[in-house]
Amino acid sequence: MSKVAVVLGLNYGDEGKGKVSTFLAGNSDITLRCTGGNNAGHTVEFNGEKIVFHLIPSGILNNIDSVIGNGVVIDPKVLFEEIDVLNQHSVDLSKLHISTRAHIIFPYHIEEDKLQEFLKGDDKVGTTARGIGPCYMDKANRIGFRVIDMYSEDFERKLRRNILNKNKVFELYGFPLLDEDEIVKDYLEYRDKMKPYVMDTVSFLHKALDNNKNIICEGAQATMLDIDLGDYPMVTSSNPTIGGIQTGSGLGASDITDVYGVCKAYASRVGEGPFITEQNNEIGDTIRELGHEYGATTKRPRRCGWIDLVALKYAVRVNGVTGLALNHLDTIGKLGKAKLCVGYKLNDTIYDEYSDDIIGHENEVETIYTELDTNFDIAGEKDYDKLPEDAKKYIEVIEKHLGVPVKFIGTGPDNEDMIIR
Question: Is 14 in the active site?
Answer without folding.
Answer: yes
